[in-house]
Amino acid sequence: xxxxxxxxxxxxxxxxxxxxxxxxxxxxxxxxxxxxxxxxxxxxxxxxxxxxxxxxxxxxxxxxxxxxxxxxxxxxxxxxxxxxxxxxxxxxxxxxxxxxxxxxxxxxxxxxxxxxxxxxxxxxxxxxxxxxxxxxxxxxxxxxxxxxxxxxxxxxxxxxxxxxxxxxxxxxxxxxxxxxxxxxxxxxxxxxxxxxxxxxxxxxxxxxxxxxxxxxxxxxxxxxxxxxxxxxxxxxxxxxxxxxxxxxxxxxxxxxxxxxxxxxxxxxxxxxxxxxxxxxxxxxxxxxxxxxxxxxxxxxxxxxxxxxxxxxxxxxxxxxxxxxxxxxxxxxxxxxxxxxxxxxxxxxxxxxxxxxxxx
Length: 359
Prior knowledge:
The chain is mainly beta. The chain has two domains: about 25-325, Porin; about 330-359, no CATH class. It is about 5% helix and about 50% strand. It has a twelve-stranded antiparallel β-barrel. The chain has a three-stranded mixed sheet with strand order 1-6-5, with no helix packed on it.
């Protein structure tokens, strides 16, 4: 064999060994729940914050929330950026029971579309969202049309107003949610483990000005550090909203204002790679009657302020709710809408002019 042939063979062998070593060095990154839009419970008012306007007798809420997030998971090593999840759309179905100052609710989340790009960053191999082949044959996308049974983590939650009256300048409350794992990590819709969230809530109304906020703990057992862009254990969640209330009819109002919210892993609190921060400009049209079935329509659009995992380049959200609560301020058993004396305890009569008034 000529020396040139031997040299060529050696180079080919060396390249093959190097490529093999690099392939062996690559680690496969696992999927996780990318969504960071932790919406308020049904009847909470804002898209993310809870206005704590809980009052009245037994009532309920039925709601639907849908939204789209652009590039919610982007992995970068400084020289390249890989949109592992480039498109994410979802639909949430809500149902809640309310009584006095309490709300108990259930959320069912159906991913409409999760799409992305596969690639390698920092010796980690990232796969685009895929369901197992036995479930969805599409190689690079998960969509409800191809997989109508797809559901991601269901949520069971409770919220309560502890201090302050409805409409007061300051209200204090608390909320808790349990995430029940469902779906597949490869779809980037679940961590595959139970999660929980506990939030301290505050809100208030001063004239036409309204505000709300939260500080809480997201108990997230999944810890994939140091995999780029992956969860790093439990997190601090926070947020605030403020806006103006604009009456448009005797029993309707519009509320418009910004919401800023985020989460940061306790492992590196407010670190540049462990904090997701996002802002929405939100508005809602809602009924304001004391009782009876009413409608609330919400719309929000915004951007990711810090592009850590889950904070998209931009987001749009739409929600619609039908809610009912039976208010009885004087506690005489006659709902305020039919009580001729709603602030004075009385008796029920057949005459609408005296119903609920003292004898």
